Amino acid sequence: MADHDFAELAEKIAAVTSLPVSRLTPETNISDLALDSMTTVELVVDLQEDYDILLSRKDFDQVKTLGDLAGLIYSRLSSGSDK
Prior knowledge:
Helix content is 60%, strand content 0%. By secondary structure, it is mainly α. Helix 1 (3-17) packs across helix 2 (37-51). The longest helix has 15 residues, at 3-17. The chain starts with a helix and ends with a helix.
């Protein structure tokens, strides 16, 4: 995963969570973002729209770090898979 790809994702997450981009790294645990259920849904929907992929809440719950999330998103982009 290229640094610029993660930087783009970090900006999208920062916009939804109101966290500074500087706090978001590939090693950041998603649980550390302290997302409530509504914010989680908003983030999942935004990521689906921004990247034109399907991303379920279950998918989101299975990733542990922002790096894992980025890997999931970019693997779906490269494979063209919606599953």
